[in-house]
């Protein structure tokens, strides 16, 4: 499998990775909008394939069943940062992929190598087609999907900060339970065999615990602009 992604020479590819709640999606969308780049949420694609498996009677406790079905759903991602979209077999999946059921199963589905091969190819073809450049966010973008990205960022934050951010999104959610669920998902995502959540050696690590979202966005915009000027 080739990892090289060819884009126009002026097109910048930005890879943003990190655990849940570190600010990847909010930062990536804002940076892409500010710099006129496309935007790809790779977590949404893993959520979409998980949603399809759950809807189609696949036993998500069985890696063999998941592997056999992995190529069946047609997942399409819209990459406008001001209105990102995701469809599965032509159906809008943006709402249903965020349910608790999908969140609790997505690590198991995304650990299956056949799933990762298919989704990784899809991600590379989207990045290659983004003529003006793209911000791609996920867990393995800098290490596996786009190892030649022009700039790689790895966002971190304390589990407490991440849990507070996540439970702030859902009215009446239990902070301790959210924290435990986050830690469990991070452990599964970091511990899987195939392209685990990891910082690439050449990624810039940004700890967002004490930063506002605005500060993180400015930091990443500056890093991308410095890179563009140096190129
Ligand atoms: N630096 C920050 N400070 C406070 N809240 C933040 C910060 N970054 C992101 N958030 C909020 O935290 C939540 C999770 O952010 P999100 O971008 O979805 O993270 P991720 O994509 O890494 O899971 C969102 O509600 C977002 O607005
Ligand atoms: N590049 C990626 C992106 C996400 N995943 C998997 C692992 C994650 O727990 C799930 C969901 O990712 P998503 O970014 O939507 O998660 P959160 O926004 O942090 O809740 O998908 C992955 O394995 N590889």
Small-molecule binders: adenosine-5'-diphosphate, deoxycytidine diphosphate
Mean pLDDT: 94
- Report, as a whole number of angstroms, the end-to-end distance: 28 Å
CATH class: Alpha Beta
The secondary-structure class comes to alpha/beta
Radius of gyration: 17 Å
The total number of structural domains is: 1
Oligomer: single chain
DSSP strand count: 8
Provide a descriptive summary of the structure in words.
By secondary structure, the chain is of the alpha/beta class. The chain has a single domain, classed as 3-Layer(aba) Sandwich (Rossmann fold), CATH 3.40.50.300. The protein is 48% helix and 16% strand. The chain has helices at 24-35, 42-55, 63-69, 100-110, 113-129, 141-145, 159-169, 175-191, 213-230; strands at residues 12-17, 38-41, 75-78, 85-88, 91-92, 133-138, 151-156, 204-207. The strands form 2 sheets. It has a 5-stranded parallel beta sheet, sandwiched between helices. Helix 1 (24-35) packs across helix 9 (213-230). The model has no long low-confidence stretch (mean pLDDT 94). Adenosine-5'-diphosphate is lined by residues 18, 20-26, 165-166, 169, 208, 211-213, 216. Residues 18, 20-26, 165-166, 169, 208, 211-213, 216 line the site of adenosine-5'-diphosphate (ADP).
């Amino acid at each position: 499998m080739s990892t090289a992604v060819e884009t126009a020479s002026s097109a910048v590819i930005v890879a943003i990775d990190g655990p849940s709640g570190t600010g990847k999606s909010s930062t990536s969308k804002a940076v892409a909008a500010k710099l006129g780049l496309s935007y790809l949420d790779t977590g949404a694609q893993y959520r979409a394939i998980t949603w399809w498996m759950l809807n189609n009677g696949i036993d998500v406790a069985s890696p063999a069943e998941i592997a056999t079905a992995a190529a069946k759903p047609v997942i399409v991602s819209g990459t406008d940062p001001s209105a990102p979209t995701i469809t599965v077999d032509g159906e809008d999946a943006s709402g249903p992929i965020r349910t608790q059921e999908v969140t609790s199963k997505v690590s198991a589905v995304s650990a299956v190598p056949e799933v990762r091969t298919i989704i990784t190819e899809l991600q590379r073809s989207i990045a290659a087609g983004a003529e003006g450049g793209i911000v791609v966010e996920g867990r393995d973008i800098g290490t596996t999907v786009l190892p030649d990205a022009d700039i790689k960022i790895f966002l971190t934050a304390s589990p407490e900060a991440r849990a507070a951010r996540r439970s702030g999104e859902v009215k009446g959610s239990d902070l301790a339970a959210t924290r435990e669920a986050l830690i469990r998902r991070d452990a599964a995502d970091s511990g899987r065999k195939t392209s685990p959540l990891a910082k690439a050696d050449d990624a810039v690590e940004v700890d967002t615990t004490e930063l506002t979202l605005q500060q993180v966005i400015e930091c990443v915009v500056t890093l991308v602009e410095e890179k563009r000027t140096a190129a």
